[in-house]
Model the fold of this input.
Amino acid sequence: MKRLPCLDGLRAVAILLVLSQHFLNSFLYRFGDSISSHELGKSPAILGGIRFFMGNGGLGVRIFFALSGFLITYLLIKEQRQFGYISIRSFYIRRFLRIFPALFFYLFFVIFLSLLGLIQLNSNDWICSFGFCWNYRNAKEMADHSVFLEHFWSLSLEEQFYFIWPILFVVLPVKQIRRIGLAWILCAPWLRLVSDYLWPEAKPFDRKMFHTGADAILVGAILALYWESTPVQKMYRFTRSAWWPALAVSWFMGLSRYLEWNEWNTTFLRFTWSLDHLSISFLIGWLLTYPENRLARILEQPTLRHLGLISYSLYLWQQIFSSKVNLHWSGDFPYNIVLCLLMAEFSYFLIEKPILRWRNRHIERADEKSTIL
Done:
């Protein structure tokens, strides 16, 4: 599968959803207000509408998850077909070079601020960050400045998933992996309900913990596993009309969002989240099937494509500039947005891009020459 610009555009939509919530939150906090679903009914209609559509950063993260699950699983399948096996060693090296250089750059910057005494972080902050277990962190143990690392929950969930996922391709046939994946997706809402019952104090982390939130990645992975199957191809031929992706978007940005904002039946929401994930996965597949469609063309606009390319660095750096506890001028609008963009561009062009270019030259060639796992 060649690189499709529309997927970079979809990444841009995802990061814009994250940025809009976090920077809006910071902006309103400066005026004595904060974005909270609990206060929506108390807000003026216009402000409520802005919060409704712009305060949906969680959706952006779930789009990232589904895209990641699809693309990485597709590459695993491609590698298995091409070489007859999957090199776990090469997978983890590629993953390390993709995630850790930009991540370490951000962490070292936070460490630098901590050494200067500008922020205060406790030992658990560092343990959870370097150990990729932030999504199981006890919120009561966090210091005020822990928020600068709080977005590591999503990176933790991804790394936990990808520590296990490629190993399944080594020890199990693809048909069995498909069954496991489908069973996991079907059981996900029930796992959330059981988790809520056994650990009610962890309920706010339902979408962040591995055992309750990994299906957001898995739906993309399952799409890749079934991508060339006859039923999936028939489904996309049947849903050729642009009304189908419009329906999916209306669900996860409209009705599902409305139900969650109004805290409508929390038990039912554990199931609607699964529909969110499936709708996002459907949209990804539809864009890949019909890349000439108007929606795909919009997502291929150069500005959106560029935002998609630097989306990982943007996600890392937005946290420090959009945080409510950043009372420095770097946290004020519009300086915070400008600084976030500058640091993301710096991170992408001087760290991410050169390392990825080196990885694609040397690691892929090593794969072609390798004869053992």
